[in-house]
């Protein structure tokens, strides 16, 4: 198991501990992100959709820590797909982030909406823009988010630069085994969004029993379930205590038997989001 960092297929090393910024600036300030920097995070996951790019820029500026000590990922949103659109979206992200390069740039979703029939061409065109940005040295790595194997196949069939990561929902109860195995076979690092199931899985009896067995919190069980399967978790937290807890990814190891239990537990905690389906409201699933 690689520790403290992951290596992407293009040779770039990235910090293993990363901080997700979705809803991390609900108070409309850079405060939470500043707290995460002080807790020790250097990898930040943002997106044009999150509205946190400006807050991240502000927090980095206020930290006094040089830009090149940070690893910044952003993503283009559904309405920003297409060759010209993607390039313009990238430029807007750079401006909001007050930087002249990104460490990673992702296509946020493979389809603008589930009924969009021409997605293969749209994805290929969008990817061509990302390849150009990569070759021009404006971004150090390019990748995907919420792409399932059939979507990634289309990129691989049409690309010159292969994607380095695929960021998908991943947590006990929704660990997308087929997509994870597919990505591993293709040398694509899986990143886990909602690695704690947005707290929906933290009270599950299996996870609670493992937390007791290992003497750790339920959140730590979820994070170990990611890193021990070669998946990079991107947790979001609001307090320094939780931030520090989530930074510590390698202090204990789950036994293989427990990993299988977590990987095969009945589906629970799914967000209701799926690229090929209309969103299901979590409240309606219960
Ligand atoms: N690519 C995509 O489509 C996509 C979609 C969704 C998310 N993401 C990325 O993934 C990141 C994380 O996902 P997420 O925010 O949905 O879910 P998450 O990280 O699974 O869960 C966040 C929730 O867990 C709580 N929490 C954090 N650490 C905890 C701990 N140690 N113990 C107990 N509770 C804890 C947080 O509470 P407090 O905040 O109150 O501390 C928050 O309510 C996002 O911020 C975003 O960067 C990407």
Automatic annotation (TrEMBL):
Which Gene3D superfamilies would you find in this protein's record?
A: NADP-dependent oxidoreductase domain
Which family is this protein grouped under? Belongs to the aldo/keto reductase family.
Statement: the UniProt record of this protein carries the keyword NADP: yes
Q: Which UniProt keywords apply?
A: NADP, Oxidoreductase
Q: Which residues bind substrate?
A: 108
Name the catalytic site residues.
50
- Family annotation (SUPFAM superfamilies): NAD(P)-linked oxidoreductase
Q: Which GO terms describe its molecular function?
A: oxidoreductase activity, acting on the CH-OH group of donors, NAD or NADP as acceptor
Highest taxon above the source species: Bacteria
UniProt protein name: Aldo/keto reductase
Organism annotation: Candidatus Mediterraneibacter stercoravium
**Does the keyword Zinc-finger feature in the UniProt annotation?**
no
Site feature Lowers pKa of active site Tyr, where: 75
The residue ranges of the NADP-dependent oxidoreductase domain are 24-262
């Amino acid at each position: 198991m690689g520790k403290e960092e992951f290596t992407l297929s293009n040779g770039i090393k990235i910090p293993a501990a990363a901080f997700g910024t979705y809803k991390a600036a609900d108070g409309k300030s850079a405060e939470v992100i500043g707290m995460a920097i002080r807790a020790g995070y250097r990898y930040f996951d943002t997106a044009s959709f999150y509205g946190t790019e400006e807050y991240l820029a502000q927090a980095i500026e206020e930290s006094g820590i040089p830009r090149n000590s940070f690893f910044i990922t952003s993503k283009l949103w559904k309405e920003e797909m297409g060759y010209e659109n993607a390039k313009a979206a990238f430029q807007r992200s750079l401006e909001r982030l007050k930087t002249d390069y990104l460490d990673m740039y992702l296509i946020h979703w493979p389809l603008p909406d589930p009924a969009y029939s021409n997605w293969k061409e749209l994805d290929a065109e969008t990817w061509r823009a990302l390849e150009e940005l990569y070759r021009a040295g404006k971004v150090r790595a390019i990748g995907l988010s919420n792409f399932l194997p059939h979507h990634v196949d289309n990129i691989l069939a049409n690309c010159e630069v292969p994607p380095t990561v695929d960021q998908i929902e991943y947590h006990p109860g929704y660990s997308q085994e087929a997509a994870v195995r597919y990505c591993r076979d293709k040398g694509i690092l899986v990143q886990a969004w909602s690695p704690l199931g947005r707290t929906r899985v933290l009270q599950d009896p299996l996870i609670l029993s493992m937390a007791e067995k290992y003497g750790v919190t339920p959140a730590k069980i979820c994070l170990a379930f990611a890193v021990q399967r070669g998946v990079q978790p991107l947790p979001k937290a609001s307090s320094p205590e939780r931030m520090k807890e989530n930074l510590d990814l390698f202090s204990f190891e789950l036994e293989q038997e427990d990993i299988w239990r977590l990987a095969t537990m009945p589906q629970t905690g799914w967000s209701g989001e799926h690229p090929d389906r209309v969103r299901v409201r979590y409240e309606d699933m219960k």
